[in-house]
Specification:
It is built from five helices and 29 strands. It is an alpha+beta fold. A hairpin with a 4-residue loop joins strand 17 and strand 18. Helix 1 packs parallel to helix 5 and helix 2 runs parallel beside helix 4.
Length: 488
């Protein structure tokens, strides 16, 4: 009824004035004003007093905003129940439309939307007259005289806010979340529906040039190729100089190692320390060999090298047999370091060269010499062996003993005894030569082995040596010669 609308609703509508030159409030301000109107109507319904409505200050807004205010007031008030109004039956009355999508036969709550913008309103004829009169009075008057020119307004600015993606088929929207003079535009752009499979040529992208621009300029990317064979040329501006940093710790530098490098290689410097305590290791390449210089003057005579060679026959051991009518006795005692069951190597040849033959690489050889007169007393000899074989490795085990002979009138000495007790582990020394790899019957020479003189033997003049190969070879092992060296 008109009485039902007149006091609260018309009082609120009277507080809304239209002025299209007025500034448009922000969305937040509009929402707050509508909330104030609807809350005043709720207060009136609860108290049946116009106090809250009359306390609202009048507002002057452009026509579209005034329409939104009036629509919100009428929409809010018309939804309130009226006990005095009788219930009217109607065949069909549109109150709202509901849109949603189904997810596996269930309503997706995130897509549920109720739109009641087209619902009908039951208004009294007098209320419509009042609304029309108010609109005519405020919006369709005679143009007044032109007013004076106003002051220049503030320069408007527009910035891009958020850019969101909507669902395919929805409308694009742009909302100003700022102010009329400082607009911040938020875009919602719907995603396009999937297209049909294309038949275009695949695009190839390659990097072209990358150059440096001046500080403060904009970066740029230019396609110097074609749309299907793109060649992207980049220009990236150089950064502006930074502010000076704080002074660092005082560094210490020391020289580590200095090593020669191969001729023609690059010099290398590595830091074996850390950033504040550097230890620099240098590798400096050697220079290329220079031209041969002139022959110098002859120097003073230096220490000499003497040597002695032993032939295979001089390295062979022979059985000391005593034959009787009933048995053959053999005196074949050996030092503890030499296996008494080893066979004796026998003299033979290898491809015409005299050699001592070790069958299947097994056996024992020996020799003895007097101390050379040029060898100083107490100085050692160096032993080298010359051997060959088809294929394999041999490790020569050498056992030796220095003896002192008795001159006329000398007393008995333990270091000259030849009895069995003399063959003790304490009187014979033992060592091994480095392993020799034999190949295709080439002649191989061992590394020198020092036959040292023990401190227990004074002025030795006789040397006894046993040779036992520890081999893993195919076929026989051949010893062609032994060499003794010493400095004079």
């Amino acid at each position: 009824t008109l009485d039902y609308l007149q006091n609260p609703v018309l009082t609120l509508l009277d507080k809304i004035a239209i002025d299209d030159t007025a500034a448009t409030p922000s969305e937040g301000a509009i929402a707050a004003q509508i909330e104030q109107f609807t809350q005043a109507l709720d207060d009136y319904e609860a108290s049946n007093q116009l106090t809250a409505i009359e306390a609202i200050a009048p507002v002057t807004v452009p026509g579209p905003v005034a329409t939104r205010y009036r629509r919100a007031i009428l929409h809010h008030w018309s939804r309130k129940p009226i006990a005095a109004c009788p219930t009217v039956e109607d065949d069909c009355l549109l109150l709202a439309t509901v849109t949603f999508t189904l997810d596996d036969s269930r309503v997706d709550a995130n897509t549920l939307e109720v739109v009641d913008l087209k619902r009908p309103y039951l208004l009294h004829t007098r209320l419509l007259q009042e609304l029309l009169l108010q609109t005519i009075a405020q919006g369709v008057g005679e143009p007044g005289p032109q007013g004076p020119q106003g002051n220049p307004g503030a320069a408007a600015t527009i910035t891009i806010g958020t850019v969101g993606t909507g669902d395919p088929g929805t409308n694009a929207s742009v909302v100003n979340s700022g102010t009329p003079t400082e607009a911040v535009l938020d875009f919602v752009i719907p995603r396009g529906a999937p297209g049909d499979g294309g038949t275009g040529t695949p695009t190839e992208i390659a990097i072209g040039t990358v150059s440096t621009g001046d500080p403060g300029t904009n970066a740029s990317v230019v396609n110097s190729g074609t749309p299907t064979e793109a060649v992207l040329d980049f220009v990236i501006p150089r950064g502006a100089p930074g502010t000076p940093g704080t002074p660092g710790l005082a560094a210490q530098i020391s020289i580590g190692t200095v090593s020669p490098g191969a001729p023609g290689s690059n010099p290398v410097v590595t830091n074996a320390g850390n950033s504040t305590n550097a230890v620099l290791n240098f590798t400096i390449p050697s220079g290329q060999p220079g031209p041969r210089g002139q022959q110098g003057n002859q120097g003073d005579p230096g220490p000499g090298l003497d040597q002695l060679f032993l032939r295979p026959i001089e390295l062979a051991l022979f059985n000391n047999k005593k034959e009787t009518e009933t048995e053959t006795e053999t005196d074949n005692e050996r030092p503890d370091q030499v296996d008494g069951g080893l066979p004796l190597a026998i003299p033979g040849t290898i491809r015409g060269y005299p050699a001592l033959v070790f069958s299947e690489g097994q056996g024992v050889a020996a020799f003895s010499i007097l101390r050379p007169t040029s060898l100083p007393v107490g100085k050692p000899l160096q032993l080298l062996l010359y051997c060959t074989g088809e294929e394999g490795k041999v490790d020569w085990e050498v056992t030796w003993r220095w003896l002192r002979s008795l001159a006329p009138g000398d007393g008995l000495q333990a270091d000259g005894e030849l009895t069995t007790s003399g063959f003790s582990t304490t009187s014979f020394a033992n060592s091994s030569l480095p392993i020799i790899e034999l190949q295709q019957f080439h002649l191989h020479r061992s590394a020198p082995l020092e036959l040292a003189v023990p401190d227990t033997v004074r002025e030795p003049d006789y040397l006894m040596v046993y040779l036992v190969p520890k081999s893993n070879i195919s076929g026989n092992l051949y010893l062609l010669m032994a060499e003794l060296r010493w400095e004079v």
